[in-house]
Write a structure and sequence with these properties.
Layout (H helix, E strand, L loop, with lengths): L2 E4 L5 H12 L9 H7 L2 H8 L5 E8 L2 E9 L9 E8 L8 H16 L4 E7 L3 H9 L3 E12 L2 E11 L1
Parallel strand pairs: 4-5
Antiparallel strand pairs: 1-2, 2-3, 3-4, 5-7, 6-7
Length: 166
């Protein structure tokens, strides 16, 4: 069983490596390896962690490596104080081992207790049925269709907007 904890700035390099790994394994993420190289580095990840009121990273460690990552974020505006957005990724070598569920439990509990969030949002590619099933297992409901969630290799991809009331 993976060890789940809140990431610290010293974990930024491991988070970067995890993001590079998982983005090479699937197109179900909002970023590609090229995107990461262009827009992210360890310093930007570490800087994002410095404001725990707007972003918190949860990591799943196995054998000293990050095999799962969840990012909880919210806008720094009072009108958005009680909602947050969630992103989750798990290394393909660890799929179907409960790591996504462990991350979901930790993030939902933390968001409710520490940020007093009333609702969580996430978006997911319409065809990513495994992820949709995971989110539904934790009480997320599909609240809308997103005709153009992202464009992958020149192809527009539709998505679903999901929401969980806390």
């Amino acid at each position: 069983m993976a060890k789940i904890q809140i990431a610290e700035p010293k974990d930024a390099d491991l988070i970067y490596r995890h993001m590079m790994t998982v983005s090479g394994q699937t197109n179900n993420l909002s970023y590609s390896q090229r995107d990461i190289r262009k827009y992210l580095d360890e310093i930007k990840i570490s800087d994002k962690m410095k404001d725990p009121d707007t972003a918190v990273f949860f990591v799943a460690f196995e054998k000293g490596e990050i095999v799962g990552l969840a990012e909880l974020s919210r806008r720094p505006l009072p009108r958005y104080e009680y909602r947050a957005d969630l992103m989750v990724s798990v290394d393909q070598d660890y799929w179907s081992q409960g790591i996504g569920s462990q991350l979901m439990r930790k993030v939902i509990t933390w968001a409710k207790k520490n940020w007093q969030v009333h609702g969580l949002y996430l978006d997911v590619i319409s065809g990513n049925l495994h992820a949709i099933d995971l989110y539904k297992k934790f009480g997320f409901k599909i609240v809308g269709d997103i005709p153009l969630l992202m464009t992958i290799s020149g192809q527009d991809v539709a998505g679903k907007l999901m929401y969980k009331e806390i």
